[in-house]
Amino acid sequence: MNAYEKLLLENKAWAREKTLEDPEYFKRLVNIQTPEFLWIGCSDSRVPANEITGTSPGEIFVQRNIANMVIHTDLNLLSVLQYAVDVLKVKHIIVCGHYGCGGVKAAMGNQSFGIINKWLRNIKDVYRLHEEELVAIKDESERVNRLIELNVQEQVLNLAKTSIVQHAWKTDQRPHLHGWVYSLHNGIIKPVCDMEPNTHIDHIYEYDNP
Ligand code: CO
Known about the structure:
It contains nine helices and five strands. By secondary structure, the chain is α/β, with parallel strands linked by helices. The chain has a five-stranded mixed β-sheet, covered by helices on one side. Helix 5 crosses helix 6. The site of cobalt (II) ion has 7 residues, from helix 5.
C-alpha cells in the first residue's frame, strides 16, 4: 500500500469511529464554526495544535508557517487574522513556538537557504534586537531556545501592532494575546508572555483610529 493510501484508509476509520461515538457529530460541525482561539504555530509536523492542547475540530482556528511568524506583509496571515478577529470573534490568539525550532536555528546561522532567507531574515531582526542578551549565553542550544522565546514574544507584539487587533481591543475588549513555547522533549507548553486587551504598547505603533 502506498503511504498516502494509508491516510485515506485511516480517514475512513476515523470518520466511522466519530459517527459511532456520536451520530450527530458531523451534522453539528457542518453548521457552526465558533472557535474561541486563533493559533499561530510553526509548520513543524511535531507540533499539531489540536492534539497537544486536547482540543477537537471546531475549537481552534489555525495558521501555521515556518517559525510561527507574524509578518505585516504576509497577506495570508493578515487575512486569517482579520477573519478570526472580525468574523469569528476569537477571544484568544496564541502564538506557539517550540524549542529546537529548525527555522530559528537556521536564522541564527550564516548558511544561505535560497528564498527562505527572506522569511528567516525577520528572525535575524529579532536576534539583532536582543543581541546583547543572546551573545552572553555560551551554550548554543540554550541560545537558540532563548531566541525561540524572544521570537514568540516579538510575534505577539507584532499582533498588537496591527490595526486589526487594536480595533478589536478598543471596540470589543478582546482578544487576549498569548506567547507559548512547546517542548518536543516532554510535550509541555511553557507560557512566556501575554498581552491583555488594551495593553499599552509603544506609542509609535499605536493608531488613534484603528
Ligand atoms: Co519550528
